[in-house]
């Protein structure tokens, strides 16, 4: 879902904001799952929380990679692939 972002492009700014909102939501969910894992009562509950944590970490890594790519693209003289 990459696309060129022109200076002053309102859609580009909305896309940028949406990426950061997604990052924030994932970070909050990750924090909650980590607390749930620490206070889990049984091994099944702990295992479920660990699986959810792993899934959230993959999603967070994906979003952070997209943010870094957009940061690069916003730099003056950035090469467009």
Written description of the protein model:
This protein has 81 residues and is an all-alpha fold. The protein has one domain (11-72). It is built from two helices and no strands. The two termini are 13 Å apart. Residues 1-6 have low confidence and may be disordered.
Draw up the topology in text.
Blueprint lengths: L9 H29 L4 H32 L7
Key features?
single chain; 81 residues; mainly alpha; 2 helices; disordered N terminus
Question: Quick gist of this model?
Answer:
The protein has 81 residues and is mainly α. The chain has helices at residues 10-38, 43-74.
SS-derived structural category? mainly alpha
Percentage of residues in helical conformation: over 70%
Shape: elongated
Low-confidence segments, ≥5 residues, pLDDT <50? 1-6
List the domain count as a whole number: 1
Mean pLDDT: 87
């Amino acid at each position: 879902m990459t696309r060129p972002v022109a200076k002053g492009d309102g859609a580009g700014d909305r896309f940028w904001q949406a990426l950061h909102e997604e990052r924030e939501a994932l970070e909050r969910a990750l924090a909650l799952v980590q607390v749930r894992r620490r206070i889990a009562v049984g091994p099944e509950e702990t295992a479920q929380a660990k699986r959810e944590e792993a899934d959230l970490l993959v999603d967070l890594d994906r979003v952070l990679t997209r943010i870094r790519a957009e940061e690069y693209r916003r730099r003056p003289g950035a090469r467009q692939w």
